TrEMBL record:
InterPro entries per the UniProt record, alphabetical: Flag_MotA_CS, Flagellar_motor_stator_MotA, MotA-like, MotA_ExbB_proton_chnl, MotA_N
Domain MotA/TolQ/ExbB proton channel: 125-237
NCBIfam families linked: MotA1
Record's protein name: Flagellar motor stator protein MotA
Localization, UniProt: Cell inner membrane
Keyword DNA damage carried by entry: no
Protein family per UniProt: Belongs to the MotA family.
Residue spans crossing the bilayer: 7-28, 34-51, 171-188, 200-220
Length: 286
């Protein structure tokens, strides 16, 4: 929604200012310029990225038009779920969660949190490390190192579409210049035309530069920035899980372990201590 609103503001401001200054909107409607710029951009994108990066970018783009799911309510669910898991471990032992870990979709514990359960990547992250905790084959330092490596890998994967869009945005002004140069060439080969017609040809050529810059900084570049914000939120979610599980491994009680996880959250989504405490108590009663 915010992407669409932003695009409307960009177009409204640029085109509105042009019209108010006496410009004619018809002069900007140059489909052939768009064909040259857009076609060159798509071709360069395919050449630069190939299979996997291109698929990752196309998969990430639809998510940008949705609002962020990482809000206080989701973190409440996450911390409450981790509290319940760790409380069960503390009360009944690590082996008590073995069936939950092996079949999370069928687990009565995890099923209480459908928003978390629906994210298979997050559930894989949680269950994999709970499985390692159950096996007891690794200590807290080894698990922390493994978690850091996995989060770093996830972050690098998330940067692939960001880099692809950033480089595409950086190239758009150059493609605009290419379209403008082609227009100038066409103008120079038409020097026998009347001055009024030559002026129109030059105006058409300049539209190419205008479109390249507008598409770069008004449309493509902001998408890459939005992807960066989304990736940071995903990484923070995994860090919250990591800190909570490591606190438990280091001997802290479930209530303190989730407090460790709460403290690493961004202030805009972080529940207060009392809010989390009340939420955990209400969940225990269900």
């Amino acid at each position: 929604m915010f992407v669409i609103i932003g695009y409307i503001v960009v177009l409204g401001s640029v085109l509105g200012g042009f019209i108010l200054s006496g410009g004619h909107i018809a002069a900007l409607l140059q489909p052939l310029e768009l064909l040259m710029i857009g076609g060159a951009a798509v071709g360069a994108f395919v050449v630069a990225n190939g299979g996997k990066p291109m698929k990752a970018t196309l998969k990430a783009l639809p998510q940008l038009f949705k609002g962020s799911k990482y809000n206080k309510a989701l973190y409440m669910d996450l911390l409450s779920m981790l509290y319940e898991v760790l409380a069960k471990v503390r009360k009944e032992g690590l082996m008590s969660i073995e069936s939950d870990v092996e079949s999370p979709q069928e687990s009565p514990l995890f099923s209480k949190y459908p928003a978390i359960l629906a994210d298979h990547h997050v559930m894989d992250f949680i269950t994999d490390y709970l499985r390692l905790m159950v096996s007891g084959s690794l200590n807290a330092f080894e698990i922390e190192n493994l978690m850091d490596n996995e989060i770093e890998t996830h972050h690098h994967e998330g940067e692939v579409p960001i880099n692809a869009l950033t480089k595409l945005g950086d190239a758009m002004p150059a493609f605009g210049i290419v379209a403008a140069v082609m227009g100038v060439v066409h103008t120079m080969e038409s020097v026998g035309l009347p001055p009024s017609e030559l002026g129109m040809l030059i105006a058409h050529a300049l539209v190419g530069t205008f479109l390249g810059i507008l598409l770069a900084y008004g449309f493509v570049g902001p998408l890459a920035t939005r992807l960066e914000h989304s990736l940071a939120e995903q990484t923070k979610f995994l860090e919250c899980i990591k800190v909570t599980l490591l606190a438990s491994l280091n001997g802290y009680a479930p209530q303190m372990a989730v407090e460790f996880g709460r403290k690493v959250l961004y202030s805009t989504e972080r529940p207060s201590f009392s809010e989390l405490e009340e939420e955990v108590k209400s969940r225990k009663g269900k």
